[in-house]
Amino acid sequence: MTKIKVLIVDDSAFMRKVISDIINSDAGMEVIGKAKNGSEAVLKVKELQPDVITMDVEMPEMDGLSALGKIMATNPVPIIMLSSLTKSGAEQTFKALQLGAVDFIPKPSGQISLDIVTIKEEIVKKIKIAAGTKKKLQNFNSMPEFVAKKVAAPVRKTIDLNKELNKLVLIGTSTGGPKALHQVIPRFPASIEAGILVVQHMPPGFTKSLADRLDSLSEIRVKEAEQGEKVLPGCAYIAPGDFHLTVARPKKDAARELFINLDKSLPRGGLRPAVDVMLESVADQFWSHMVCVIMTGMGHDGAAALGLIKAKNGRIIAEHQSSCIVYGMPKAAVETGMVDKVVPLSDISEEVLRML
């Protein structure tokens, strides 16, 4: 069996040692090199040709973002960023994902995480997923950066608080999702008549930064969902990390109003938020037209609940394999036989608007 070759980039000797031990403890992987800053990393990528890189964000001489940009421009390799659970750490993480990083892992306790061994399984799993994306990186990173030109500066958005809700767009995604959402959400016009609910598998602390970033690039309002708020047309609500996003109606047979309900019930398939939980809730509570979109991601979250959406005459879109960083969730959706249309990422927003 050919082992996955990993390059570790971190300015902390302790972190390089612990991450190296974690990787080498798995029979399917081996550390082939280490670098203490971005400059060393750029040179070692050319020399060692790794399958995957783990990259610290904050380093002297050349930081992780600068190194990432250089590597993706010259020797595209799947890169997983290790970032701190801070506001600036979250913002840097999203810049990294936009520049082409496949995924990220939050350090559990800051820049030098003495307890990083507690996330050993996550590190191993994400490296294996990343290794499988190597061939796709060239295509994915050459896709047009639509969002860079869409909205030059944040615009003042007026949302009609009294407008009746009669359409919903439901989006589920995981690995590769943050970058993919940047290709979908900013393409929705301010005039869209649907409320939009989004589940992106992501830890706490990162979903607000994702929502704020998308909001600054979009004509519609994009925000992290809050308990008890009303779902309004022209607004997108992103499930907060570690909370299931469900919906509720105060008077099921009377007013046609939908409200956000966040809960910490048990993870579904190890996931919270889970797409299946959101879809089950919406299918139970909503009374009108729905379009469900399953995008890039590992696993099969969302597939189990598609039958409920279909039973309510909802339409279902799956992202085409050609544009997925990981063709797991869309593949599982397609295999249910309930998907109405399979389209590449660049066409998803247009297809949603057509179905609405």
Number of helices: 13
Low-pLDDT residue intervals, each spanning 5 or more residues: 140-153
CATH superfamily of the largest domain: Methylesterase CheB, C-terminal domain
Which structural class fits the helix and strand makeup?
alpha/beta
Number of strands: 14
- Report the mean per-residue pLDDT as an integer: 90
Q: H/E element string?
A: EHEHEHEHEHHHEHEHEEEEHEHEHEH
Major beta sheet, specifics?
A: 7 strands, parallel
Straight-line N-to-C gap: 48 Å
Radius of gyration: 20 Å
- Strand order across the largest sheet: 8-9-7-6-12-13-14
Could you name the CATH topology of the largest domain?
Rossmann fold
CATH architecture of the largest domain: 3-Layer(aba) Sandwich
Output the CATH class name of the largest domain: Alpha Beta
Q: How many domains make up the 3D coordinates?
A: 2
Q: Based on CA inertia axes, which overall geometry fits?
A: elongated
> Beta-sheet strand percentage?
15-25%
In helices, the fraction of residues equals 25-40%
Describe this structure in words.
The chain is of the alpha/beta class and 356 residues long. 33% of the residues lie in helices and 21% in strands. It has helices at residues 13-24, 38-48, 64-74, 87-99, 120-131, 137-141, 146-150, 177-182, 207-217, 275-285, 306-311, 329-335, 348-355, and strands at residues 4-9, 29-35, 52-56, 79-84, 103-107, 167-173, 195-200, 221-224, 235-238, 244-248, 259-263, 289-294, 315-319, 341-343. β6 (167-173), α8 and β7 form a beta-alpha-beta unit. The longest helix is centred in the first third of the chain and has 13 residues, at 87-99. It starts with a strand and ends with a helix.
